[in-house]
Write a structure and sequence with these properties.
about 80% helix, elongated, 5 helices, mainly alpha
Length: about 150
């Protein structure tokens, strides 16, 4: 796996988790609208079957989301542990570009920081960020390759 693909998996998992959470929210909204339609009057068993099916889908969605979150946390911790092996500036650049997410108030601009924002945050130019990123990816690839060789 290339260093970039290795880092990009964090973003992919972020997206997958967000999709699972959206699915879960939609199911909760559906379940809430179903329960509001119950007036306390006797109903046929078909409506109970619908509610049971919705509750089952909610439980399944929550389990899938939790499993995805567990995988995400493990993967993110692994990725961070590898980039922590890099020199400080290289670590900072990769962390800002691939790991660090914007706070929720600024997500309309995207989940992750742009090169310009990273440069501004780290007090350097975008060209410097590009050069540091290139060296960091090369060093990370060396680390990943040596880990792969040790496993073989």
């Amino acid at each position: 796996m290339t260093a970039v693909a290795y880092l990009e998996q964090v973003k992919y998992l972020d997206s997958m988790i967000e999709n699972k959470r959206d699915e879960e929210r939609e199911l909760w909204a559906l379940a809430t609208s179903m329960t509001q339609s119950y007036s306390g009057m006797p109903h046929g068993s078909g409506e109970n079957d619908k509610m049971t099916a919705i509750v089952k889908k909610l439980i399944d969605a929550r389990e899938r989301t939790n499993a995805q979150i567990d995988r995400y946390v493990e993967t993110k911790q692994e990725v961070v542990s590898y980039i922590e092996m890099l020199p400080r500036k290289q670590y900072d650049v990769l962390y800002w570009l691939y790991i660090k997410k914007r706070d929720k108030r600024n997500r309309g601009q995207g989940w992750y920081y742009t090169w310009a924002e990273v440069a501004d945050g780290l007090g350097c130019t975008e060209q410097n960020i590009s050069n540091v990123r290139r060296r960091a990816l090369k060093n990370l690839q060396t680390i990943l390759d040596s880990e792969k060789n040790m496993e073989s």
